[in-house]
Design a protein that fits this description.
The complex is a heterodimer of chains A (about 290) and B (about 250).
Chain A lengths: L7 H36 L5 H5 L12 H32 L3 H14 L4 H15 L6 H25 L3 H9 L4 H9 L4 H17 L2 H6 L9 H6 L5 H11 L3 H33 L1
Chain B lengths: L3 E12 L2 E12 L3 E5 L6 H8 L9 E9 L2 E2 L7 H7 E4 L10 H11 L5 H14 L3 H4 L12 H13 L5 E5 L7 H14 L4 E5 L3 H7 L2 E6 L2 E7 H6 L4 H7 L5
Parallel strand pairs in B: 3-8, 3-9, 6-7, 7-8
Antiparallel strand pairs in B: 1-2, 1-4, 4-5, 9-10
Helix pairs in contact in B: 3-4, 3-6, 4-6, 6-7
Classes of the chains: A mainly alpha (about 290), B alpha/beta (about 250).
Chain lengths: ~290, ~250
Amino acid sequence: MLNAKLSRKRRRYIGFMRALMYVCAALTYALVLFLIAYVLAKGVPNISWELLSTSPSYLTERIGILPDILNTVYIVIATLLIVLPLGVGAAIYLTEYAKNKKVVAVIEYAAETLSGIPSIIYGLVGMLFFCQFLGMQTSLLAGALTLVIMNLPTIMRTTQESLKTVPQSYREGAFGLGAGKWRVIRTVVLPGCVDGVITGCILSVGRILGESAALLFTAGFAHALNGIFEGLTSAGATLTVALYVYAKEQGEFGAAFAIAAILMGLTLLINLAATLTQRYFRRKKA
Amino acid sequence: MMSSIITIDNLCLWYGNQQALKNVSLDIAKKSITALIGPSGCGKSTFLKTLNRMNDLIPGVKITGSVQYEKTDIFDSATDVSELRRQIGMVFQKPNPFPMSIYDNVAYGPRTHGVKGKAKLDDIVERSLRDAAIWNEVKDRLKKNALGLSGGQQQRLCIARALAVEPAVLLMDEPTSALDPISTSKIEELALQLKEQYTIVIVTHNMQQAARISDNTAFFLLGELVEYGVTEMLFSQPRDKRTEDYITGRFG
């Protein structure tokens, strides 16, 4: 007769391991939920129209984060405007033009390393190079340029990955009709990798929103209300930096948590946007 | 034999250190169908892709010998590769329409070569699709994505796309190997119609296909041109023992 019963020891072992995994999963969920709930509970009551629509005043002790919101928008725009052509161009060169496989491998490896460097190091280098050596002072532009270096690998890698998914047969078809290299890239290859570029952009925006260390050094802490051009050449805090300033230097935890809640909402939106774009393009390709 | 449009003399080709073509010499007759047959890896596709310099795209290719198209050396540094590929068009093994509309697929070539104006392009698109015997199937959905067509339709669309730039020669690299029998016979019929106006060079794995549609057949083996001649003769009275063994199915 087949003895199909598990031994008691074995059953106890399985039960124990399963319980352990449940605990791990539950802890993870609980931590995330707690964090979100805590930030929302502390932050949302402090979000008011006045907070969102005014700039801070020391005279009336008013706290407003409009300048910080605008600074964030400016720095996102400036960074993307510079990093997109650079990253996409580099990706096109590496996948479509570069003949020397060794050089390509070295550059790819360097980009990978670059994306793993702690951001405070970018801040330090950015401060010394952009702010001091190039004489930009502490300004949003210096911050944006620092973020360009930080995000270049992301944009480059996502574009490259997506360029590699464009079937070789499209290129052959276009070359076979007598199209030149640039025409093939512009008309057949690039349209096929728009999704990669957009994904890279969204990831970069997320990273820019979340960046504080690199900007503390390069973009400064000012809360002045400026237009985009004026804003780029003067110092300014983004939302994340403002959070740090309010919490650490002014003890305004209400405002800090309000900003935190806003940033969390934005992150959620960005992740959602990334998922939706990917789904949209996948459906379009199929 | 009729007058020739492409003359290949002593063509050798290497991929790195490996020789893929060995001293191939042959003349391709105008307005005829020339079939290239032989087992996998015998160099027939490589040979085909040399004729419009598609091998340029592969790194590490070295070529000696000469290919004359209408009395001009195609390897000459003064040769305009873009113009060469316009005149010697190509249809690939796997249908490869671009991920754009049917109309834009056909208009791609003419636009590349500077044709502008909607009326002119409309004309070219309709004529090419008619010539490729697919007009009736797609005329109501020219703006739809080409990837929505069936495999056989996609391949005829690719033929239309190649015809749109008014080539003189059409190179076909196993154009039916990815298609079902009905689509295959449509393409074969089409090839027979097209040879009234175009010179066709077709690589095929299917010997019945070569026998059915071609005027001349070249048999390749291990990079060598073993035998070349009128199709009926080659299939009924092969001169070379290796050709006989291949066409009677003794290897391949």
